[in-house]
Design brief:
Length: 160
């Protein structure tokens, strides 16, 4: 099993970001550094230090993307109504009012749902692993740090 599982859309986005940073991004930062060098004394040159910091952050992100993509697996969504990787699931905790329902996307931290109400839930977290394979309408009990909790799966939706 791959260490990093992504939806097809997220995998494509990460590949495009990597390509952009390793081409356009590196060229732009190199140009900023060169312009700052032309200003003279590097010790007192704020533009130079800012460009070098930007370069460092960008190279760190490139290395992170390479690590993700090196060991990536593209996963397809589960069947409709079943919770799997790439599923947005709406749950209601036992005893809560329907207005307090919470929405989670089961997936990698790099997934970026467009709906701000949707949080990312790791499939290896206690709740995430308990939800995997469960169907809409079922109740799921899992072991949380403060004891057992029960949630009811109100809705599932395939993330795209």
């Amino acid at each position: 099993m791959a260490a990093h599982q992504f939806s097809p859309a997220t995998h494509q986005r990460l590949v495009a970001e990597h390509r952009d940073l390793t081409t356009r991004g590196r060229i732009e930062v190199a140009e900023k550094i060169e312009r700052a060098r032309e200003m003279g004394d590097l010790k007192e040159n704020g533009d130079y230090h800012a460009a070098k910091d930007e370069q460092g952050h960008m190279e760190g992100r490139i290395r992170q993307l390479e690590a993700f993509l090196e060991d990536a697996e593209i996963v397809q969504s589960a069947a409709d109504g079943v919770v799997g990787l790439g599923t947005i699931v709406t749950v209601l905790y036992d005893g809560d009012h329907e207005d307090n329902a919470e929405m989670f996307l089961i997936g990698h931290v790099e997934e970026r749902p467009s709906d701000p109400r949707v949080s990312i839930m790791s499939p290896s977290s206690p709740l995430g692993s308990a939800l995997l394979g469960a169907a809409r309408g079922l109740e799921v009990t899992y072991e949380a740090p403060n004891g057992k909790l029960t949630v009811r799966i109100i809705e599932t939706e395939i993330y795209s």
